[in-house]
From TrEMBL:
Gene3D superfamilies: Aspartate Aminotransferase, domain 1, Ribosomal protein L14
Alphabetical GO biological process terms: translation
SUPFAM superfamilies membership: PLP-dependent transferases, Ribosomal protein L14
Keywords: Coiled coil, Pyridoxal phosphate, Ribonucleoprotein, Ribosomal protein, RNA-binding, rRNA-binding
MF terms in GO: pyridoxal phosphate binding; rRNA binding; structural constituent of ribosome; transaminase activity
Protein's name according to its UniProt entry: (rape) hypothetical protein
A Pfam family matched in the record: Ribosomal_L14
InterPro entries in UniProt: Aminotrans_3 (IPR005814), PyrdxlP-dep_Trfase (IPR015424), PyrdxlP-dep_Trfase_small (IPR015422), Ribosomal_uL14 (IPR000218), Ribosomal_uL14_bac-type (IPR005745), Ribosomal_uL14_CS (IPR019972), Ribosomal_uL14_sf (IPR036853)
Family: Belongs to the class-III pyridoxal-phosphate-dependent aminotransferase family.
Length: 393
């Protein structure tokens, strides 16, 4: 980035003659090696660094930056573990235990709101890299504004962030649990408490892993191994996901930071049996598919289902193929707004087929809806179901 001046991608390799003379003509090459435009840009960038004495300026600004950062460290020694860096490339490492559920990412978002751009690293480090400006006028004022922003985040914003994050759901609750090494599959022999790997276990649905589409979204860590074996009880097939925990303070950092992710992990899938909570005559249905090409459905989504049980004289008969709106999902634990939601069962309200000519929304078949239904139905425009419901959760 610096060599290209932020204009064009370019890199260079430096080595002494003892290394370079081992490479004979034609032995080493690159399709884009020696690109004329990139070489001109890199040369101009090096000229700017030399002519404007940016290295010297970095050293002088560093002293002021480090003094102010160490001053903040003294004021918030319970939160800040270390301040380090070279030149204007500096890092503030936080104590994860005292921050509780607040991450470096949360702090960077708060800094952004106060006019300072910073980068989170490894969940506990905030990287500060102020620019090398040609004009040195007001540089001290700008640095002081940055320090004030960091001070205010720790003094004012941090307690609010801790209160907000305290309601988040641990990932092992959402996904079924983390199995110790004695319960691991054949390829996973390292236990989670050794700080290297964890096994997130959940029962499979129709031969497909529940995490198959989310393999890289668990705490932003890639899953290095996936095994399909009878892990826990020797009878039910479960999926075992091995996740690198290097650099984590297990277990409290294994949290889903985005409440929206909590909803995405809660699926009513093909084969799921749901209770019918209206007076249409059906008692239970089995999900065939979710509409709009989705692999699974959650609160407010519409599914196609077959009736497994029905009242003898009801309007809907056993074996009929029907549409239903999911109004309760037993596995769901969180909402988009971060609030808690819990239901004891999977339930649907049956609706009629959408009129393609008039494009009217599907309407409930029954005239009554029993039990609580979620307020998410309002956004999905299922207003008639809300009107018939006894309780809105």
């Amino acid at each position: 980035e610096a060599l290209g001046g932020g204009v064009i991608p370019v890199s260079a390799v430096l080595a002494d003659k003892d290394v370079m003379l081992h490479i004979k003509l034609g032995q080493h090459g690159s399709t884009f090696g020696g690109n004329p435009l990139a070489s001109v840009v890199a040369t101009a960038s090096l000229d700017v660094i030399e002519q404007e004495k940016l290295v010297k300026r970095s050293a002088s600004l560093r002293e002021e930056l480090r003094i102010q950062l160490n001053e903040i460290k003294k004021q918030f020694s319970n939160y800040i573990k270390e301040v380090r860096g070279r030149g204007l490339f500096n890092a503030v490492e936080f104590n994860s235990e005292s921050l509780s559920l607040v991450s470096a990412y949360d702090i960077c978002l708060s800094l952004k709101e106060r006019g300072v751009l910073a980068k989170p690293t490894h969940n506990t480090i905030v990287r500060l890299t102020p620019p090398l400006k040609k004009k040195q006028l007001n540089r001290s004022d700008e640095l002081r504004e940055g320090f004030k922003a960091l001070h205010d985040v720790l003094e004012i914003d941090l307690s609010n962030l801790q209160n907000t994050n305290s309601g988040k759901t641990p990932i092992w609750i959402l996904l079924g649990g983390i199995a110790p090494s004695r319960e691991s599959c054949g390829s996973c022999r390292v236990g989670p408490y050794e700080g290297f790997a964890a096994l997130v276990v959940q029962r499979e649905y129709d031969g497909r892993s529940p995490l198959e589409d989310d393999r890289e979204s668990i705490g932003n860590r890639k899953v290095s191994h996936r095994g399909r074996e009878p892990v826990l009880d020797g009878k039910d097939v479960v999926w075992c996901h091995r996740i690198s925990l290097t650099g984590w303070r297990f277990p409290h950092e294994l949290f889903i930071s985005d409440p929206q992710q909590q909803q995405r992990r809660t699926f009513i899938q093909m084969g799921t049996v749901l209770k019918v909570v209206d007076n249409s005559g059906a008692k239970k249905v089995m999900c065939i598919q979710a509409l709009k090409g989705k692999k699974g459905a959650r609160l407010g989504d519409t599914i196609v289902a077959s009736v497994k049980e029905a009242m003898p004289n009801g309007k809907v008969k056993k074996g009929a193929v029907v549409y239903g709106v999911v109004v309760r999902a037993a596995m769901q634990r969180g909402r988009v707004d971060g609030s808690e939601v819990r239901f004891d069962d999977n339930a649907v309200v049956l609706v009629d087929n959408k009129d393609k000519k008039t494009k009217t929304d599907r309407q409930p078949i029954g005239t009554r809806v029993f039990g609580p239904v979620p307020h998410e139905l309002r956004k999905k425009k299922h207003l008639k179901i809300l009107a018939l419901a006894q309780h809105i959760a």
